[in-house]
Structure formats: structure tokens, C-alpha cells
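Hi C.,

You asked whether I'd gotten around to modeling the 77-residue construct. I have! Everything is below, sequence then structure, no commentary in between.
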Amino acid sequence: MLETVYNNFGFVGSLVISLGIFFFFIFWMAGVAGICQEHDDNKGTVFLLFLAIIIPVYPVGWLLVQMITQRNKLKGL
């Protein structure tokens, strides 16, 4: 697979794509961990965890929203 990406995009393109996929995976895991930690009441935790695993974009978006929210709260101090 990496050889195909390298042949199509060259060295720099394959490096950028590989790092992008790696960082997306890290942010996905961090988002799933954050969703699990935030919701301790077990009412919506199972559904949100299922949603986070099935749709990998959801926890990454959740993580970005939480980062922006915390940034805005810190600016208000």
C-alpha cells in the first residue's frame, strides 16, 4: 500500500499522507478516551462509545470542539 502511495504522490506526498493518517488515528483514540471519561453516568456512554468507534470522524470533531471550548474559557479568565 505504501508503495502505491509513493508511486502516485512521490516521497513528500506519501510522507504527508502517512503522517496525516497517523495523527488522525492518535486524535481518534484521544477522542474515544475523552468521550469515555466525560460520561460516567452510563446512560449515553454506550451509545456515544458505539458512535465513536463506528464513525471515526465523530471523536476527532468532539476533541476539536472541546479544545476550542477550553481555549475560549481560558481566554475569559
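If it helps when you're writing up: Helices lie at 2-38, 45-54, 57-75.

Thanks,
B.
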